[in-house]
Amino acid sequence: MTDNSDLAALIRAIPDYPKPGIIFRDVSTLLLDGPGFRATIDRMAAMVPADTSLIAGIEARGFIVAAGLSYALGLGKLMLRKPGKLPGEKIGTDYELEYGTDRIEMHLGQVQPGQKILLVDDLIATGGTAMAGIDLIRRGGGVVDTALFIVDLPDLGGAVKLRSAGVESRSLIAFGGE
Fold it and tell me: A GO molecular-function term, please (predicted)?
């Protein structure tokens, strides 16, 4: 077992982005490191519940994590997209970020009733994006009881918000004091 400090060291901190007072945890520096990214996916794959049947990734960095996990585990990947990206019938939800608002959408019919889906993203902060993803999947008929992230910013309360919605939040790394 590792404390993942090797991976934490690969994540760059950018102060005052996207606005003053916010420390942006940039996982792009981790993604640039081939062995680091491989270790990230391997360690996250070991945290995925055995009964998971589909990996849902949130656009954009969540797609990278979801694709790696889907490949490693041989599972399909559900894309939760930003507006205007999906043709055909879809559902969407608006949500708040710590620095604004956004929206994600999902195609109808890609989730089977009762299907066990793991939600993944690069980072959980306030939990707004993850809660929107959970809402979409549940409205589509899926079951979400676990969400997985590379980074948790626990001081912003997102993991607590997920737990209050019946979803276990797991992450490799936590940066406190954010």
Answer: adenine phosphoribosyltransferase activity
Task: Tell me the pLDDT tens digit for each residue of 88-144.
Answer: 999 999 998 766 789 999 999 999 999 999 999 999 998 999 999 999 999 999 999
Structural domain contains residue 6: no
Q: Closest by alpha carbon to 57, among 154, 149, 162?
A: 149
Domain count across the chain: 1
The pTM (predicted TM-score) of the whole model is: 0.93
Enumerate the active-site residues: 61, 98
In sequence order, what are the residues at sequence separation of 6 or more whose Cβ sits closer than 8 angstroms to the Cβ of residue 120?
44, 55, 56, 57, 58, 62, 65, 66, 69, 147, 148, 149
User: For residue 13, which of 26, 32, 29, 4 has the smallest C-alpha distance?
Assistant: 26
- Tell whether 116 is covered by a domain: yes
What share of residues in the chain are helix, strand, coil (percent, to 5)? 30, 35, 35
